[in-house]
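> Could you send the Helix-turn-helix domain-containing protein prediction when you get a chance?

Sure thing. Input:
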Amino acid sequence: MKHFKTLSAYLDYLGLPRPEHPMLSVIVFDGDKAIPCPRESSPPITNDCYTISFKKYVEGDLNYGRTKYDFTNGALIFMAPRQVLQWNSSIVFEPKGFSILFHEDFLKGTILEKQIKKYGFFSYSTKEALHLSPKEEKQIESIVKNIEIEYQNTQDDFSKDIIIAHLDTLLKYANRFYQRQFINRKELTNSLLEQFNQYLDDYFESGQFQEKGIPSIEQIAEKLKVSQRYLSDALKKETGKTAHEHLQLYLINEAKNMLLQPEKSVAEVAYDLGFEYPQYFSRLFKKKEGISPTQYREKYKLN
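Output:
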């Protein structure tokens, strides 16, 4: 798989103009006709850059990570370094939008170097992109305009700090707008929780906990056709619990039912729930319930 270490090499590959700054590129589209992607198709590639883009695709298929970009509404997309990118079918997008690309080294020594890793939306798949309202779109465009002005100006000692400050503001607004999107998509979030629990029910009933062990959140997310980070963030916003916490809750609830079956030992319950070592199960149970599995059994055993 081809990997691009520099921003210039990546832009050359895309057929886009060389950057004004070796580690930063700001491209604003403001024309009248739909724009074809300079490179008609691409096998899977990776790079060391962050990308923030607002575009509406008219036709063509774009794959980001494991997910196909399959919608045509305008959306804000965030791509992180070393994510796999692939497209074909001559992508065409509307003439208005922007792309900000910056090498991860551009953030060295700045407030964003660590902060950007906390924004989960860089790990979302493209179908989980941020859909902006007209008002939100104007707010983002205003910030991008300020970034573009500074980018086009002659570089001085203040340029990078100003651009970093604007990028920080853009990401904070995006974070706010994502929270709004989670709220507006409450029905979708509830559906995700139902699918999450249904997957675990099917996994349990088919004996896969015993055979394969406890499923990972990545495995569950893949089955639900969402990214791991989006699944956890959506559930956290709606229920107050992450995907990992919901998995633990499911295990504890199943354990409570099984512990009231006198013929099963605590170790057997642990193995049936996919724990490799019974002491791990006992430790988790006590952490969540405040008492050990044996104490729970004694307290609630059937007469």
